[in-house]
Amino acid sequence: MKIAVLGTLSIHLVAEVDRLPRPGEMVPSRGVGREPGGTGTLQAIAAARLGAEVTLYGRVGADPFGDEILSSLRGAGVEIAAVERSVRDPTGASLLLIEPTRQFLAAQAGGANGGVDEAYIARFLPPIREADAVLLDLAIPAPALVSLLAGLPPARPIVVLHPIPPRDLSLPWERVDFLVGSREALASPTAGSSPEEAARAGQALLTRGVRSVVITAGPDGAYLIEGAGATRFPGHSLPVVDPTGAADAFRAALAVKLAGGRGPYEAAGFATAAAALAAARQGGPLSFPTAAEVQELLARPALP
To answer: Tell me: the pLDDT tens digits for 29-67?
Structure first.
């Protein structure tokens, strides 16, 4: 199965703190770490770990951070020939302050990611059209996103879109097969509390033309909304160590199963298990499970 990923590529600078600072306050850090990040990077690595043939599209700077990200992608088996390097803009970067319960503050500089424009899409649209599934997010500049969605065939590849950062965009929503986001991302804090609440939250998105909506609810699992109803996929009884990579694992796993011809119910169950495994490990690319690990978890009973 072939997965195309178009998203942000960034380096994450992570500071572990005992508590998040108040405005104007400085708090001590237990150290500062660095790891490859960005939705594009993480989804691509997660999908490759699950056995897919993954090609990543995007841009980094001609700098050491860009070298580091590309090296990690190459090591994970991701095809990076389409990742362009900017001599003008630096690699995107994010600064995160994370406290022990994994709440965080973050600041992001888009850098070279902002250079993904309509001309870039025109160069790489033909191979993207040949993929079985495409993973996208709203951090891509809007003109490029519109150009890509408008240029895809009507039925294939399957499009999985993450609505982060939340923006009110005029997109060809009818070309989005699965809109996948947390209840917070979908601006509905109660969306993951019951199938009825999930269905209500999903209806507004379905009326835009999106074909299906998936609401992730952390340890509680996920909801698939199609038509008037919602189906709940329970979580799994694993300890939550670090949830920061779980959402990327969920979307990648969903896309991999859909690309392989599986139906949305099987794909959503598989994705819920992949997210649970990622959350049970320390975050970052090394937290993403393999397909065999996901299948092993699926053989155990799920939470009620």
So the answer is: 988 889 999 999 999 999 999 999 999 999 999 999 999
Do residues 49 and 73 touch, judged by C-beta distance below 8 A? Answer: no
Q: Which residue has the tokens 């397909």?
A: 291
**What is d(CA 150, CA 209) in angstroms, rounded to the nearest whole number?**
14
Annotate 221-268 with DSSP letters as a single string.
-EEEEETTEEEEE-------S-GGGHHHHHHHHHHHHHHTT--HHHHH
**Token representation of residue 112:** 């070279």
- The verdict on residue 230 lying in a domain is yes
Residue 287 burial (CB count, 10 A): 24
| Domain presence at residue 245 | yes
CATH number of the domain bearing residue 48: 3.40.1190.20
Range of the domain at 193: 2-19+32-298
* Domain assignment of residue 304, yes or no: no
Q: Considering the entire predicted model, what is its pTM?
A: 0.92
Report if residue 140 sits inside a domain. yes
141-187 pLDDT per residue, tens: 999 999 999 999 998 999 999 987 766 678 899 999 999 988 777 75
| Of 68, 103, 60, 108, nearest in space to 84 by CA | 60
